[in-house]
Amino acid sequence: MSEKRSPARGDGQHVLVVVEDAETTELLATTMELAGYRVSAVSTGAEAMVRLVEHRFDLVVLDVTLPDLQGLSRGSRFTPADRPPVLFLTAYQNLGRLVPELGAGREDYVTKPFRIAEVLARAEVLLRDHGPVREGPSYGDLILDDDTCQAWRGQREIDLTPAEYRLLRHLLVNAERVLSKEQICRHVWGEGRADNAIEKLVSRLRHKVDREGPALIHTRRGFGYWLGH
Questions:
Q1: 28: buried, middle or exposed (CB in 10 Å: 19+, 13-18, 0-12)?
Q2: Residue 135: which pLDDT band, with cuts at 50, 70 and 90?
Q3: In the prediction, which pLDDT does 5 show?
Q4: What is the set of domains in the chain, with CATH numbers?
């Protein structure tokens, strides 16, 4: 497995800010982006749950006063390894009972009104201690781990055969470039195969990768296949 890196502040980690107040959201998003993070922001627990299912986040900054906070309890569908660490914005001290499904043992908090410097400092510690160990080629929310030959689309692990993994990786590292059937054959099998063998392999892979979310694998008739938005 890849070793964890200790990310410096501003290493491009993806942060989900879940805050109802627009001014607070703007303050957090702007400051964290200036510090080098990628930031997505939503204002409800329901929206946050959708984002967490569809995308991989390295950290969640969560206001515990959200009226629909219980909507996040569906986070129990994630395995512990999939749950991003959570930084709570709260006036409460008893955090053990706050959305335990999201981050038991992987959480911290700052009290409101907060100092933005403290938010950045605690976020950095959470990311350093609980940062993701998956590293490898990626495109959007599609991530590969070459050490284990595993793939994820957002939080969803994709079960692939060796041939499917080789094809997906070849498409990913050549993202937005059309690959011919001949190029795919040479890379996946090392020899020529009938067109229908390639078509069946691409069809199976497309069904697994694009089962949820926007399609990433596309056909350009008469030319080949490509991966992109």
A1: buried
A2: low
A3: 41
A4: 14-130 (3.40.50.2300), 138-227 (1.10.10.10)
